[in-house]
């Protein structure tokens, strides 16, 4: 067993990230969206002139954020 913290950090980088996981596969996707999601989603909705739905769950909010980022150009590399 390797007790080197630097090696453990490198090993963690090889694991798949939750960011890459499909929201439909999240085990907590059905839970209420987080405060951070709600705040960012409200901002994106305002920018896109779209209605904000406060009743979205975590997975739905994530998908909505992705769609609005694409629509507004936010989150894209320039």
Fill in the keyword field for this structure.
single chain; 78 residues; mainly alpha
Describe this structure in words.
The structure is a single chain. This protein is an all-alpha fold and 78 residues long. 10% of the residues are buried. The termini are far apart. It is globular, with a radius of gyration of 16 Å. The chain has three helices and no strands.
How is the topology of this model organized?
Blueprint: H1 5-13, H2 35-48, H3 58-72
Helix pairs in contact: 2-3
Outline:
By secondary structure, the chain is mostly helical.
Poorly predicted ranges (pLDDT <50, ≥5 residues)? none
The ordered string of helix (H) and strand (E) elements is HHH
Characterize the main sheet: none
Count of alpha/pi helices: 3
User: What amount of the residues lies in strands?
Assistant: under 5%
The assigned structural class equals: mainly alpha
Shape: globular
**How helix-rich are the residues, as a percent range?**
40-55%
How many E strands?
A: 0
CA-to-CA gap between the ends? 43 Å
Give the overall average pLDDT. 81
Rg over CA atoms, rounded to whole Å, is 16 Å
């Amino acid at each position: 067993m390797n007790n080197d913290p630097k090696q453990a950090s490198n090993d963690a980088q090889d694991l798949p990230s939750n960011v890459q996981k499909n929201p439909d596969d999240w085990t907590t996707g059905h839970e209420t969206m987080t405060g951070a999601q709600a705040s960012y989603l409200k901002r994106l909705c305002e920018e896109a002139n779209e209605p904000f739905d406060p009743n979205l769950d975590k997975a739905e909010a994530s998908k909505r954020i992705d769609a609005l980022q694409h629509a507004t150009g936010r989150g894209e590399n320039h």
